[in-house]
Amino acid sequence: MFELTNEQRKYLGLTLVSSTWDLVKLIPSPHVKQDTFVYYDGNTICKRIIISENTYLEHDLNEETTNSRTELLPKTGRGKIVKLTASTLEKRTPKGMYFSYNGNVTIGKWEANRTFYNSYIEDIKLNTFEDLSCWIKQWISETTISDLYELEEFASLPKKHYKYNVGDYFRLKLNRRLYGYGRILLNYDKMRKEKIKFWDILMGKPLVVKVYHIATTDKNISCEDLRNLKAIPSQFIMDNTFFYGEYEIIGNMPLADNELDFPVMYGKSIDIRDSNKVLLQSGKKYFELNRNKAFYSEFKNNGIGFGINVKLPILSKCIELHNNQPYWEQNNYTTNKDLRNPKFYAERETICKQFGVSEEDIFLR
């Protein structure tokens, strides 16, 4: 089986395996095509590795066992002793740093709910463990003393909650060396709490953010310099990366009208109580028509994730060309559901005519 070495673990921020620990394979769960291995320090499970044909997850644990390591002790006095299996161990909370591979690589810390590195933004394809081994080799060869210090500092981060506001500028990591910058444009969760009506079909605590046309090693770009840059079309995002501090707030300025850009949502209501309504949403602008037909079914545009949905190669092309043509030409699920896409000019015209509104009012052009 594939397993990280201690030399590799050192560069990935993971706890090293002691020569006194025992590696044991647990009883697998029925119909689950993955194996679970644990490292014991005496009767204490201190590390878990889950591996399948093309996935790998390693993280720390601190779980006590009894009866010759066949049973798992409860974490509290109210709990019960249970048989130790891969399934019962799955219910226990991981600790410390983790390394995950599932085509992408993620390095993070459980308690802090933060990611140190994620290869998704770089759009790196790692299809096999051989690809992963090559990636790790390159990661190690490019690691500096400063990188190791940064990783050690990250591993010591406590869980902390951060505040954020509309108009905030933020910084995020695009890869190991480059930073991107963005802006919070709207807080739909705050609108929920204030009972402001909108088409509430977004999961989590949704924000609208935009990412500027910049990818730099400079961590100290000013807000004044950022506000004059072009930006990738705005998107919905859950607030987790802001709430836990992964995306760092660097300042705040009032939003001017020409800085606004919102995803547009259109379609038939999915609420059975309002099933005869057609809805249109853009920022805080909300419209509904009773007893009307939705001309299109594919533009609800309510997809949302935990991180920005912009990959570095596309961002770099947009920066090079000084426009968003490379973004719109991706021809993926996101751009093919977005009414702001230039190819949907006829659909935009039809929808605006249906609601009796101008394109400029909805699409902020």
Q: Based on CA inertia axes, which overall geometry fits?
A: globular
Which radius of gyration do the C-alpha atoms yield? 24 Å
What is the typical, i.e. mean, pLDDT?
95
- % residues in beta strands: 25-35%
Q: What is the β-strand count?
A: 17
Task: Please give the domain count.
Answer: 2
Protein name: Immunity protein 26
InterPro entries: Imm26
Organism: Desulfosporosinus hippei DSM 8344
Describe this entry's structure for a reader:
The chain is α+β, with helices and mostly antiparallel strands. It folds into 2 domains: 150 residues, no CATH class; 196 residues, no CATH class. Helices cover 22% and strands 27% of the residues. It contains 11 helices and 17 strands. Strands 1, 2, 3, 4, 5, 6, 7, 8 and 9 form a 9-stranded antiparallel sheet that branches. A 5-stranded antiparallel sheet has the order 13-12-11-10-14. A hairpin with a 4-residue loop joins strand 8 and strand 9. The longest helix is centred in the middle third of the chain and has 13 residues. The radius of gyration is 24 Å and the shape is globular. The mean pLDDT is 95.
Topology (SSEs and partners):
Layout: H1 6-12, E1 22-25, E2 35-41, E3 44-51, E4 56-66, E5 71-72, E6 82-83, H2 86-90, E7 95-101, E8 105-109, E9 114-118, H3 129-141, H4 145-155, E10 168-173, E11 179-187, H5 188-193, E12 206-211, H6 223-226, E13 235-238, H7 240-243, E14 248-252, E15 264-268, E16 277-282, E17 285-290, H8 312-321, H9 325-328, H10 345-355, H11 359-363
Antiparallel strand pairs: 1-2, 2-3, 3-4, 4-5, 4-7, 5-6, 7-8, 8-9, 10-11, 10-14, 11-12, 12-13, 15-16, 16-17
